[in-house]
Amino acid sequence: MDGVRGVEGDGARTYFCVFDHLITTAKEHFFFRERSRRPPLDNVNALLSFLYTLLVHDIVGALETVGLDPAVGFLHRDRPGRPSLALDLMEELRPVLSDRLALSLINRRQVHEDGFQTMEAGGVVMDDATRKEVLLAWQKRKQEEIQHPFLGEKVSFGLVPHVQALLLARYLRGDLDAYPAFFWR
Predict the structure, then answer these.
(1) Angstrom distance (rounded) from CA 37 to CA 138
(2) Alpha-carbon distance 34 to 156, whole Å?
């Protein structure tokens, strides 16, 4: 498992290494050097952390709906209060649901630097108006329809966590030969 976690960590570093290049506007206020959390130390990390929180809550609900315990994961270590399985499933969904939305909000200038505040301890938080703007964009994104790459049927992005949780449950129960991870271009 440590070897797999090492590969995942290397992949995350490579992925986030190019993230800043995808930000095309307001670079003086929206830049990405490295992933920081608890607390996020810049505007982009604050936005990503908020979107990741929304996504993990959706995934926890999806896992519980199909009868899986969101706390018992494969790659993320089990710790009290940590939704390890939800974090595992989030790995395949975060780029398309959260990261793309964060980049769109920044590049389309739907979020502004004055909506972020640096706290005394150095952490960055969003103000209420910015959180509302992000929540509205999140809900709108979840309503967009796509053709699911495995099912071949149209589903809304908001249902993708539920579909993936159901596919995972079916695999774990022996109804599928393999788990069809969600790959989206």
Answers:
(1) 20
(2) 31
H helices present in the chain, as ranges:
2-17, 43-65, 84-94, 100-107, 128-143, 160-172
Beta strands 124-126 and 116-118: pairing type? antiparallel
Please, which pLDDT band fits residue 43 given cuts at 50, 70 and 90? Answer: very high
pLDDT at 96 over 80: yes
Residue whose structure tokens are 């994961």? 73
> Side chain identity at 136, as an amino acid letter?
L
Q: From CA 165, how far away is CA 61, in angstroms rounded? A: 10
Q: Which of 24-28, 127-131, 166-170 has the lowest mean pLDDT?
A: 24-28
Whole-prediction pTM? 0.90
